[in-house]
Amino acid sequence: MENKSMLGIGIIGIGIVGERLLQAFKDHPRTEVVGIFDANEKRLVEVGENYGIEIFYDSIQLIESRKVDCIYLAVPPKFHYSLAKEIIKRGKHIICEKPLANSLLEAEEMLALAEQENIMHAMNFPTVYRPSFLTLQNHVKKGFLGELTRIEVQCYFPEWPRSWQNNNWIKSREQGGFIREVFPHYIEMIQRLFGDIENVCSYIEYPSNEDQCEKSTVAIATLIDGTPILFNAVSDIGMKENLKFTLRGTSGVLHHKNWTELWRETPDIKEQVILPSENHFTSFINDIIRNFNGEPTRLVTFREGVKIQMVLEKILEGCNCRKF
Q: Known InterPro entries for this protein (predicted)?
């Protein structure tokens, strides 16, 4: 892949999540945000003026800009497939938000097209660049857990959608909900640490309004070696948001809490781990640059995205679903 001294970035979709990475690209010395597009023209003009970035009223014109090397695709999931095809067939590199697509079939075709065109394909999974996860990963490699006996994911939300991301698509059954929006982070962490997830079965509770996303779910699965995995999530409950990823082993237990905290526990101690101060977005962009330089990276590619999509679809299929 071509070594680039400065990478030209185009951004399609500038909601809350898209704006976070926009700021990171703008701050990085090796990336330049060439232009942005959003279907919401008011939002597009506002962000363009705030950041001093050229705005495009047509996504294809942005994709085709000669200054653009790579497109960051941050639109709702149902639009990933159609836009990704336009990006890939024009030979542009792509960073996609999660989940990769709105179906496994779409995700698999996106991967096949990206590999056929020999472009860089990556996904924005900032959690795997956070010091909390990297330190947890080091504990696992050094044998802190002993023999792994169980993996648990707990997600409790006082409301869904969350106040900072309250929009129509994220509360829709078609493409929203915390299973699609939050679970991919944990699925990626599990599969990065321990390999593929299989034997998925879930129980999902939906509201009576068939347009609205899930209210709660309990899902069970296993690693290939049979280690059990439990997903437990519920919204609209009387507590602060609490997200926890727990690895239980014969020698110790690790708790990854609310994205940024890591706790370790043995029969004798329970303590919070002091973490280094690092900007995970900067680390992510550094890896994108390394990829162009032919160096090894920790990037989550479309190949991992397809594996995540497989697990998501099995959870969403449900063994038994109930409407309130």
A: Gfo/Idh/MocA-like_OxRdtase_N, Gfo/Idh/MocA_Oxidoreductases, GFO_IDH_MocA-like_dom, NAD(P)-bd_dom_sf
